[in-house]
Each structure stands twice: as structure tokens, then as C-alpha cells.
Amino acid sequence: MGRGKKIVDKGIVLEAALGIIENEGLEQFSTRRLAAALGISAMTLYNYYDNREAILREVALRGLSDFFERYEAEAKALGSEGGSPLRVFKALAMEFLRFGRERPLLYLFLFDSSLAEIRHDPQVARYFTHTFNEVVGRIRDQAALPALRADITLFQVLANGLVINFIRGRTKLDESRFKAYIERAYERLLEHHEGELLP
User: Fold this and answer.
1) CB-count burial class (<10 Å; 0-12, 13-18, 19+) for 17
2) What is the pLDDT of residue 129?
């Protein structure tokens, strides 16, 4: 593609940006690097996106969509089995591990990088609060909500931290060991909240 040639599909820009982050990491991503990968000038790139943050927002939305698509299928199957709605957080933790193993640099971009500005975007924030919001609608006593929120946050931070340490090579983690840690965290943090929720 010539440097002066325009891209006819914004999706091509998104795919190229996603590819750089997924294969090389966020540290290697720049609008210049993206423009070079597309064979266009950096100025041409700004015909499609206002700035670097707008591109990263779209990549984050795409990555989170990929992540939650599989997780939601598992959560739905788990929900059809009955039991506590809080068990979906175990499914979420297992999806952290699966996604982190299969797409480690994208995982780090989504769950470990500094995306402060992007996470305030309503569409992006919706992904980060989705699972919790599903559970909140079933709480019997709203007074229990702050403690439940704190314990869910701690559970997710623990699961995410385990996966990040695994990706960064700081720990050896196989699936059975990860499941054991998650089961123990669930017992300590969330199991005692089960009675607070409607089935």
C-alpha cells in the first residue's frame, strides 16, 4: 500500500493496532508504528482516529469484547446449574487464566496497563463492572453491598494478580494450582456472602 493511499475500512486500522499490541505489547505501540504497519503516513491515520487514545479505546473495546464473549457463555452455563450467583466470579477467574495464556500481551494491555483515561469511557467501564452489576440486582439487603463489593474486588485483584505474575514469569502456575488458589479465595472472600443473594 502506498504512503499516500487511504484506507477504506476503519476496521483495518483497528486490526493492525490490535496486532501490534497483541504481538509486540503496548510499549511498542505508537501512531507512527501503526501508520508504518499500514503503509500510510501518520497524518493519514488521523483521518480515522482523533488521537492515540481513541485508537487504544477501540482496541480495548475489541479485546474486552473478545474476553467477555467466551466468559459470558461459561457464566450462562454455570447459572443454569443453579446455586449461588457469586460462582460466576470463579468462571471469570478461569477466563482470566485462559485469556492470559492464549493472548498474554493483550491481557496485560487490558488488565495491567495504565488505561486510566480509557477506563473512564462509559463503554469500556461497562465491561469492568458488568459481572458485579449482574450480582447486585440479586442482593437481599443493600446494607451488605459495600462489604460484598470490597470482597469481590479483592477476589478479582487476586485472580488478576496471579495471572499477571504468571505472564511475567514470576511464578509457575498450572491450571490445577490456579483453580486451588481461586477455590480458596472464593471460600475466604465470597462464600459467606452467598446467603445475602437471591438464587
Assistant:
1) buried
2) 85
